[in-house]
Amino acid sequence: MPLEDKVAIVTGGAKGIGAAVSEQLATLGAKVVVNYNSSFKEAEKIVNKMKSKGGQVCCLPGNVADEEHMERIAKLTRERFDKIDILVNNAGITQDNLMVNMTSEEWRKVVETNLNGVFNSTHAVLPAMKEQNSGCIINMSSIIGQMGGVGQANYSAAKAGVIGFTKTLAQEMARYNIRVNAVCPGFIDTSMTEQIPEKVKEKLMKKIPMGRFGETQEVAKTIAFLILHGTYITGQTINVNGGMYME
Fold it and tell me: What is the domain extent for residue 215?
């Protein structure tokens, strides 16, 4: 159990990629705090599943867009497990619309969750990581943050911001032995990509050299690699996209 003595927080850890990450880290022995906002049933399901396998997993509600919520989650995690070794900033939403039709509310909600949420969660855990002089932070960006996407100006801007945030934080935190990296999934089979029209999916498949959408477990295993073996990797953007090149 290579992560037996580690404590991890996974934001948005109840569904999609987040659920796969929560399960992967618990399987490797980490004590995992599954953060969720409105997905209590899904979070409870993961907790029960991993506990039945001997995992030490709990779930805590909280909206990453609310700084006080994330401070509370960090505080409760430290009270329960004594420390915080790993943070996976996975929580994210979409509110797609063409820019000409996009409302300020659609822009604000996506940026507050996908970018400000990364700040809030990270800001909450950094004191613990600095105190113990170690830590690993994985920020979930996206291929859309690298190449853009029609109808996703808000999402693309937020995810591009995550990459810039990652590079700067990695430089600031290296002296404290805290590694910070971003993972950029391509098109992964989740509830988000289920909403893509079939004709659009077919066009996307033609742009992916591997000819398929990725699986959530493939992203989770990449994150596990960075935590376990990426001891000299920081400030990097790791693409998990089936060979899809940026345009």
Answer: 7-240
- CA-CA distances (angstroms) from residue 202 to 76, 205, 207? 45, 5, 9
Distance of CA 111 to the CA centre of its chain: 15
- Per-residue pLDDT of 46-90, as tens digits, reads 999 999 999 999 999 999 999 999 999 999 999 999 999 999 999
Query: Does residue 246 lie within any of the structural domains?
Result: no
Q: Would you say residue 36 lies in a domain? A: yes
Closest C-alpha among 234, 216, 246 to residue 14: 216
Q: Report the candidate in 207, 200, 212 with the shortest Cα–Cα distance to residue 246.
A: 207
Give the pLDDT mean for 138-157: 96
Place of tokens 């960006």: 141
Q: Is 247 among the domain residues?
A: no
Residue 171 pairs in a beta bridge with: none
Q: Give me the number of domains the chain comprises.
A: 1
Task: Tell me if residue 77 falls in helix, strand or coil.
Answer: helix
- Cα 96 to its chain centre, rounded Å, is 20
Catalytic residues: 155
Q: Does 2 fall in a domain?
A: no
CATH number at residue 55: 3.40.50.720
pLDDT tens for each residue of 167-218: 999 999 999 999 999 999 999 998 777 778 888 888 889 999 999 999 999 9
